[in-house]
């Protein structure tokens, strides 16, 4: 990959937008959402990257990669469930159907892994054999596949707070979701995950785990937010996995875990001041996201060095003066 190109883009990344005439703005950690009056949202995927629920900086071309990857997967899963995308007026921008979000994140895991203190692996290592209602056998080791994928739902925390992994029973007790709707979502989630495993394998990757968000639109359950991106999922290179696993080594990763490990190595796992991202780590992460995007779309991404904000503005609202 052309690291010089990635380096030249460092100063042009899309940090934030503030369009005046696109509707009420709701900023997530990664997306700027403009809620329009016609039941749609203009969703601008920025280049911001978050880890441990904290925004830490920007990565060249990350927004474009995310939309590229999610678009591909939305297309490949449309026979399983309808999704929120209506159109893509710019590489970083979607027009989506505004759903009533179901306040549960459906996490599906095929492998026992993770670096954070709340990860499945950390809990298992400490002796916990029940993870969000799933009984786990003794004797498993890090990065080992489960016999069957498991679902470990989490609550969708308010802005600034951490999501919490809980059992389905706990969700029912807190009246966050009712059992019938949960069953439907669990079923969709497993089908989506299994499709992910199958298609990632064709591209030489292991689809390790992921998170799905659903909403209700016109009385119908819909897949919303993003799908199977390296922000919401883990991907490992399949070819080298068995040997590395045998040797007790970490797999080669094409996702955000790389950043989590970089942060954890410097003692940051979510509390206190986060280390500043270096140019090198920003370029390394860009390389991973672009590599993954290109594996899926099967051709080189069109990457234009220059202000992503200006190019979005010229499509979305050339006359906005702010
Ligand atoms: N079609 C949709 N209708 C309504 N809300 C949606 C839709 N798709 C995604 N969302 C919500 O919009 C936000 C997307 O922004 P982003 O992914 O940056 O947020 P986040 O940081 O993951 O979450 P948070 O909102 O908790 O900060 C999320 O809150 C997501 O749940
Ligand atoms: Mg999100």
From TrEMBL:
Pfam families: SAICAR_synt. Belongs to the SAICAR synthetase family. Residues 25-266 form the SAICAR synthetase/ADE2 N-terminal domain. The keyword Nucleotide-binding applies. The keyword Disulfide bond does not apply. This is Phosphoribosylaminoimidazole-succinocarboxamide synthase. Pathway: Purine metabolism; IMP biosynthesis via de novo pathway; 5-amino-1-(5-phospho-D-ribosyl)imidazole-4-carboxamide from 5-amino-1-(5-phospho-D-ribosyl)imidazole-4-carboxylate: step 1/2. NCBIfam families: PRK12607.1, PRK13961.1. CDD domains: SAICAR_synt_Sc. It catalyses: 5-amino-1-(5-phospho-D-ribosyl)imidazole-4-carboxylate + L-aspartate + ATP = (2S)-2-[5-amino-1-(5-phospho-beta-D-ribosyl)imidazole-4-carboxamido]succinate + ADP + phosphate + 2 H(+). GO terms for cellular component: cytoplasm. Its EC number is 6.3.2.6. Keywords: ATP-binding, Ligase, Nucleotide-binding, Purine biosynthesis.
């Amino acid at each position: 990959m052309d690291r010089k190109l990635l380096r030249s883009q460092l100063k042009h990344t899309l940090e934030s937008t503030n369009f005046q005439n696109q509707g009420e703005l709701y900023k997530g950690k990664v997306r700027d959402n403009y809620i329009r009056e016609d039941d749609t949202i203009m969703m601008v995927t920025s280049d911001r990257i978050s880890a441990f629920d904290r925004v830490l900086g920007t990565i060249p071309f990350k927004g474009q990669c995310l939309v590229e990857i999610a678009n591909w997967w939305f297309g490949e899963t449309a026979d399983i469930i309808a999704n929120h995308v209506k159109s893509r007026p710019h590489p970083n921008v979607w027009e989506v159907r505004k759903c009533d979000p179901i306040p549960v994140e459906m996490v599906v895991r095929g492998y026992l892994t993770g670096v954070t203190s709340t990860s499945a692996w950390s809990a298992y290592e400490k002796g916990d054999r029940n993870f969000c209602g799933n009984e786990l056998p003794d004797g498993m080791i890090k990065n080992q596949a489960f016999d069957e994928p498991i679902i470990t739902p989490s609550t969708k925390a308010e802005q600034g707070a951490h999501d919490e992994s809980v059992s389905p029973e706990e969700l029912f007790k807190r009246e966050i979701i009712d059992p019938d709707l949960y069953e439907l979502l669990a079923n969709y989630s497993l089908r989506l995950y299994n499709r992910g495993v199958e298609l990632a394998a064709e591209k030489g990757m292991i689809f390790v785990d992921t998170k799905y968000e659903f909403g209700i639109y016109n009385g119908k359950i819909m897949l919303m937010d993003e799908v199977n991106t390296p922000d919401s999922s883990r991907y490992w290179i399949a070819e080298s996995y068995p040997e590395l696993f045998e040797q007790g080594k970490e797999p080669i990763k094409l996702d955000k875990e790389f950043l989590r490990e970089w942060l954890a190595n410097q003692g940051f796992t979510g509390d206190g001041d986060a280390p500043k991202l270096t140019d090198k780590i920003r370029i390394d992460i860009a390389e991973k996201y672009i590599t993954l995007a290109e594996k899926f779309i099967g051709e080189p991404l069109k990457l234009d060095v220059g202000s992503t904000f200006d190019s979005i503005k010229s499509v979305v609202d050339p006359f906005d003066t702010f």
